[in-house]
Structures are given as structure tokens and as C-alpha cells.
Amino acid sequence: PESFPPLRKEEAVRVLRGQMKGIQGHCNSCYMDAALFSLFSCTSVLDSMLFMPFPLCDRNVQGILRDEIVNPLRRTGFVRAGSVMRLREQLTDKGQCSSFTNAEKDPEEFLNLIMQQILGIEPLLKLQSGGREQDCYCYQIFMDQQEDLVVPTVQQLVERSFLSSELKLVEIPSCFIIQMPRFGKEYKMFSKIIPSLELDITDLLLDSPRECCLCGDVATLEC
């Protein structure tokens, strides 16, 4: 089947901006629509999911994901709700969870199911906390209300979340999927979050040389 590269710069604006663009929502699909758009519209870092050899992955799920969602999104900027529903039906069968077709889910649950159980991808992140390592596919930002953060950047949120949870990255990840703080219908911690187009993970890495905030030399102590 024909494949299309991710959209870049002016082409991304031309293809994705306007009415009837993006992934059409239906029956509480917003969590999946947003995740798929973020993972595939403008980046190829996870395109291996689309071409992994059978039988390491589920051919039906891979075909729907590649031919009915990713390629149309990159080609015309629009994906019909029916295509996402077909993916949700397949996930319902494979995940043994009937609510995938009608209920809102946590994006992490969707990513774990499709990446681990269906496509067989190795975990993307290795985290350490309290001397114990854990593998995962994405990182969700957890943090308490910060009075000095009114309109934060992604960089600020990631750093403070890692600090408050005493987390470190064991190694530089090939792909760093970050889920923003949870929002409910009645409460939002932040009205806006500024995307950080580049993310500096130097201070998040385990045993990484850090510079002193006063003199700029390699630090010997960490507060």
C-alpha cells in the first residue's frame, strides 16, 4: 500500500488548517483522536508501528491504523469517525474490553494496549524512582497546584513533575510521549499550556553531568 510521509512546516499548515480537518470525533473518541493526531500527523518517530512484520504484530489493527487513519491524515488532513471506530472495534476484540467503542478512556490505556499487546513494541521509556526502574510507553504529568505557574510551558511542567515525583530518566528515550495534566469538566489546573518545541532533558537524566547554576562549571552537588 502507498504510504505518505509526515507533514512538515508550510505543508502541515496548508493540509491541516481549516474546517473538516483533523480526526472526526464520535462516541467519546477524543482521547484516541488526540493521541493518534499527536503521534502521526507531523512526526515519523513511531512509523515502525505501521510496518512491523507479521506475526510480531496484529495485521488487521496495523492495516486500519496505517491505511485508514495515518495515510488519510497525512494525505488530506482529515480522518472520518468510521475509520477510528473500526480501530476501536478491533481493540475491543483484542483487549477484551467492550467499552473501547463507546466510553472515554485514559490515553495511557489505549497506548499500552496498541503498543504492547497488539503491535509488540518495546517500552519507550525507562524511569527510575527510589532506586527502582520501571518501563513504560508514555509519561503523564502529575503535580500539585503551582501558584507561580499561570501559563506554563511543557518544559516547566515536565521538570517540576519529575522533581516532585523524584523521577529520573535512565537513558535518553527514542520517543518521549508526554500526557498533559488531567482536566475535568469542572476544574482545569491551567487554562493554557505553551508547547515547548524543543525539550531539554539534561536535568532529568540519571547520572548526567549538570552545570552549576552559579559558576557554570560541572556541579558536584545537587540541591
UniProtKB/TrEMBL annotation:
Transmembrane segments: none annotated. It comes from the Eukaryota. One of its GO terms (molecular function) is cysteine-type deubiquitinase activity. Keywords: Cytoplasm, Hydrolase. PANTHER family: 40S RIBOSOMAL PROTEIN S3A (PTHR11830). This is CYLD hydrolase.
